[in-house]
Specification:
The chain is of the alpha/beta class. The protein has a domain of 171 residues: Vaccinia Virus protein VP39 (Rossmann fold), CATH 3.40.50. It contains 11 helices and 7 strands. 34% of the residues are buried.
């Protein structure tokens, strides 16, 4: 047995990048506008994957830099959006200068982060007044057949949490919004959807084939054939403004003698820039 550690599930999507891109839903324009703003802004996208959210951000006029720790996922994004700059990077070590972005946005990936390391990095690269925006597409499992599908392929919706942001002193209160939308799935794309789940993508070949056959059989039971069917989603959106930065003592010369302007007064000069 190998002593090598198993790869993180977060990095399991590259091997199924094409299926992921075919099967995963996009994000409603209204939801993305709520997340990133109506006016063009500088946006750093984390966990951009194959560019599902990136495409909508670009269509809204935002200047986007897309990052993802998986080169294979970004390769698909570059084919679709060759003008968008990309970097292979995780949220814990961002390739960006301090205070350089208006918005940091994350779709379907925030739960994979090491939040103790990622949140300070996100706060660092945001401009004063900038915001962290996070979205998850969740299947609407209030509908019985969607709930049955979730039982087959997994229901990660419980991962939708901003608890780490809410408890952090780096960000202000978290705002929430939701928007319902639908995706048409057919016999092929529902198999791709199953394959795009990390728990299925990491199965051995035999177990993966058996699971995909089970999912296709489930679809066939509905008799929808080539017409497909509407898979309902809820876009769960969150945003929070970065807190004002406390100026380090080294920058304020705390404890240093008062600075004078050469006059007879001992007035303390404060630079408000």
């Amino acid at each position: 047995m190998s002593d090598q550690p198993s790869p993180s599930p977060a990095l399991s999507f590259g091997d199924v990048a094409a299926a992921y891109d075919r099967a995963r839903p996009s994000y409603p324009r209204e939801a993305v506008a709520w997340l990133a703003g109506e006016q063009p802004a500088t946006v750093l996208e984390l966990g951009a994957g194959t560019g599902k959210l990136t495409s909508v951000l670009v269509a809204l006029g935002h200047d986007v830099h897309a990052t993802d720790p998986d080169e294979q996922m970004l390769a698909v994004l570059r084919e679709r959006l060759p003008d968008v700059p990309t970097s292979v990077a995780g949220a814990e070590d961002l390739p960006a200068a301090d205070a350089s972005y208006d918005v940091v946005v994350v779709a379907q990936a925030f739960h994979w982060f090491d939040h103790e390391r990622a949140l300070p990095e996100i706060a660092r690269v945001l401009k004063p007044g900038g915001r962290l925006a996070v979205v998850w597409n969740a299947r609407d499992e209030r509908i019985p057949w969607v709930r049955r599908l979730g039982a087959l392929i997994g229901s990660p919706e419980q991962l939708r949490s901003m608890e780490q942001v809410e408890s952090s002193e780096l960000f202000g209160p978290v705002e929430e919004d939701t928007l319902r939308h639908w995706q048409v799935v057919d016999r092929e794309s529902i198999a791709d959807l199953a394959l795009s789940r990390s728990a299925i993508a990491t199965l051995d070949a035999e177990a993966r084939a058996a699971k995909l056959a089970e999912v296709v059989a489930f679809y066939d039971d509905f008799g929808r054939g080539m017409d497909g069917m509407q898979l309902p989603y809820v876009a769960c959106c969150f945003r929070s403004t970065v807190a004002e930065r406390a100026t380090p003592a080294a920058e304020t010369d705390e404890g240093a003698a008062p600075v004078t302007d050469g006059s007879d007064t001992d007035m303390l000069l404060i630079d408000f820039r």
